[in-house]
Amino acid sequence: MKTNRIYLPIIIAVSVAIGLLLGSKLNSNASIYSGKNANKNKLNKLLDYIEREYVDAVNTDSIVDLTVTKILENLDPHSVYIDQKELVAVSESMQGDFVGIGVNFYLYNDTVAVIKPIKNGPSDKAGILAGDRILSANNYTLFGKQISNDTLFSKLKGEVGSLVNLEIYRKATNKKFKLNITRDRVPIKSVDIGLKLTDKVGYIKINRFAETTYDEFKKELSALQTKGMETLVIDVRDNGGGYLERAVQIIDELLPNKALIVKTTNKQGKETLTYATENGTFEKGKVFVLINENSASASEILAGAIQDNDRGTIVGRRSFGKGLVQREMPLGDGSAIRLTVARYYTPSGRSIQKPYEDKAENYFNEFEKRFESGELYESDKAKIADSLKFKTKKGRTVYGGGGITPDIFVPFEAKHGEEATMLIMQSGLVSYFVFEQLDTNRKLFNLLSKTQLEKEIKSSEKYFEAFKQHITDSGLLMSYAQKDKILTYLYAEFVRQLFDEASYYSIILKEDAMIKKVLEQ
């Protein structure tokens, strides 16, 4: 196995925060040399001197970017600058769609290999199949060379209704052919799945709070209610947040009329209180919210509103601890910032923002810090300030100052010394390995039922040993003590690529410690 493979699942990651505006027009009037205006003019004059007088050629645009970034680093960890290229990706992710051909792919051995076309998307309608290679787009070669992501995306994306001529190689038939595909809007799902865990228990997984999240959530909620759901499990583990407004809309579906959802205060001390309306459609059934150390921002607003109103039960591990609100501000050149403009408080009055004296990498590296303290395995190892006690509606004690502490603690699933195993099994390494295995004999795998597939994966050492070699070739180390769990994750990924997302989650959630805990209640 080659070690220079590029792992490229087409999942556009979402940034947690982004930056601040800098700059004003140069002015030679001496009267401005006082206070804040003088400092602004000083920066502009410095850039002007460098541009006109410095001995070497310097890109002053890059200096401005660095200056803006450095200024923001001295504010708080969530006020951050985002450049033009990154802003395009972030905007697409948060608006919930992009215009393209609609495929999930890997850059596999220097070739664009289709994992799966998005259902009912342009490529699916045109006949693209899993395993196909895209060799060119409008006669621009996409294989056999080091092609940047920016170039690749620019060739596959475009305007709604525009045509792109693709040359395809289908390995299963060993044939090349051309297809004209009409680009269209392709959804980027923020709600991964909605399904039933039991006859009465429904489950909805939210990966971020984007523009379309409430609509996606409402669709899944309605479907589950139609199927007789009485208990709802909302999973916001590893959800770093997003639009506060979308979280509020979702909470409104769950809380009774006039229940307080969240309070924000700005620089001037102005308070804005947001209450639930009478439009909620699931105000009576049981609610569980799953959180972990990577649940942040809007996810914590959701968990805090449910907890403080005694509307449901929070299950998992202490959340990240982000109680700051950002607003996006364009800089006029295609870049933008998200500047912290307010603090938010849960209904009981808690600020769950953790201290940020250390604004560097350590602030965000919660997993390592909590692992070292033992908090991932024992609830009483969590550092909670006893002085920051608050009361829920029914008088239960809750704490502020560093995330949402769950009502029911569930330790990290891996045993001590096996943390890397679970992290790897939930990473792109597994999906890449499975794609490679499928690619060796896709005809055979396409003939197998789920039951036959499970037997194929679990009944021999073939796939387990091949996966161990895959991890070794990738330069990683992990424990293989949890063999059954590893094989279950491998089988689930085979099912996802061959069948559908719902089947994948049905398999994985049966092994999920938090789900097991919910079903015990």
UniProtKB/TrEMBL annotation:
SUPFAM superfamilies per the UniProt record, alphabetical: ClpP/crotonase, PDZ domain-like
Residue ranges occupied by any PDZ domain in the UniProt entry: 87-142
GO biological process: proteolysis; signal transduction
GO molecular function: endopeptidase activity; serine-type peptidase activity
GO CC list: outer membrane-bounded periplasmic space
Domain of life the protein comes from: Bacteria
Keyword line: Hydrolase, Membrane, Protease, Serine protease, Transmembrane, Transmembrane helix
Membrane-spanning ranges: 6-23
Keyword Protease (UniProt): yes
Family to which this protein belongs: Belongs to the peptidase S41A family.
Protein name in UniProt: Peptidase S41
